[in-house]
Write a structure and sequence with these properties.
By secondary structure, this protein is of the alpha+beta class. The chain is built from 4 helices and 8 strands. The protein is globular, with a radius of gyration of 16 Å.
Length: about 170
Amino acid sequence: MLTGFAHAAICVADVDEATRWYSEVLGLRVLSPPYQMTGAAIERDMGELLPSPVLVKAAIVGLGADDHVLELIEYPQAQAQAQAPAGNPAQAPAPAGRTDRPVITNPGLTHVGLVCDDIVTTRAELEGRGVGFLTSEIAEVAGLRTTWFRDPWGTVLILLEKRHLDRPYWGQYP
């Protein structure tokens, strides 16, 4: 089952500026400087949550080199679509039969990451307890296995299974 907390993600309009502020103003260490993710792996991970093509910019800040960190995250494609003229939705259409999609591109806390030891078993156990998942698959991205769900009040969470148990979640790749 669950083995710990991995991260809390904060959606920001400019990940470079946010990284500077969190490090200079709050004194957090930049553990993973801003980087960009695109392509098939991130599409599998977040393609049901964001407009395609999925483009994510992120950085990791924290106090120590462990799983207790903040992920600063920017969704440039979603932000661009949100600013486009009417008729260009900021969120991808919900899959058939699903109209209650959460929005993870608004500024502020967007999701909580939870580390587990066996994502297949943990997901099955949670589904057995009535947890509704937001993604239909378990993705492999950045050295992790991931799947997304939410609590009954709408908080979005992501399960993370680490490939290298001796490393923090953000240090799994390569």
